[in-house]
Amino acid sequence: MSGQNPVTPTASTLAEAARAAKTRGLPPLEKWNPPFCGDLDMHIKRDGTWFYEGTPIGRPELVKLFSTILWREGDKYFLVTPVEKVGITVEDAPFVAVDFEVEGEGDAQKLSFSSNVGDAAVAGPSNPIRVERDPETGEPAPYVLIRRNLEALIDRKSFYRLVELGVHHEGWFGLWSQGAFFGIIPSDELPEDA
What we know:
Blueprint: H1 11-21, E1 36-44, E2 50-52, E3 55-56, H2 60-68, E4 70-73, E5 76-80, E6 85-90, E7 95-103, E8 110-115, E9 120-122, E10 129-133, E11 140-147, E12 150-154, H3 156-165, E13 167-169, E14 172-177, E15 180-186
Parallel strand pairs: 1-6, 7-12
Antiparallel strand pairs: 1-2, 2-3, 4-5, 5-6, 7-8, 8-9, 10-11, 11-12, 13-14, 14-15
Helix pairs in contact: 1-2
C-alpha cells in the first residue's frame, strides 16, 4: 500500500482533470497510461445524448470536453486523463455526424462531415465511411471515422442527402471522397425504384 487513499472518479473530477490537461487541439491520450479506476455511470445513447447517473448532460460545453478525452480499446470506451481511466457505455457510435458539405464531383469529390460535438472530418482513406446493414430488415446504419478510432453515426437526413450523391462503381452503389470509393450497397441489391 502506498498510504494514499484511492479517489473514486466522478464526472466533476474527470472534467477538472480534462480542463487541466487541455491544450490546443485534442489532448495526447495515446501518450497517457493511467490506471483503470473502474466504470463510471456514464452512457452515450445512439442519438448522441450523453447521460451521467441516468440524467442527460445538458451542458453542451461539458459534453464537448468529455468527448476530447474519449478513448476506444476494442469494443470498450473510456474517459482518460493523465491520472485516471474510467469505463463508460456507448450504445452505438460515440458521435453523430449531423451535417456535411460537398466540394467537387466524381472521384474528385470531397465530403466534409461535422459532428454533434464540433469535430470535423473529411471522408477519405484516413476517415472511411462504412455502412452496416441490419441482417433482418436490411436497414442501413452509416458511419464515418471522425478521429483516432472513434466513429460517428451519420444521421438520417445527412444519409438521405448522401444517397442522392451516390454513383455506381465496380458493382457497388456508393460515394466518392478524396479519391476513395465507399460502397453503400451492391448495385444489384438496389430497389428498382431507387
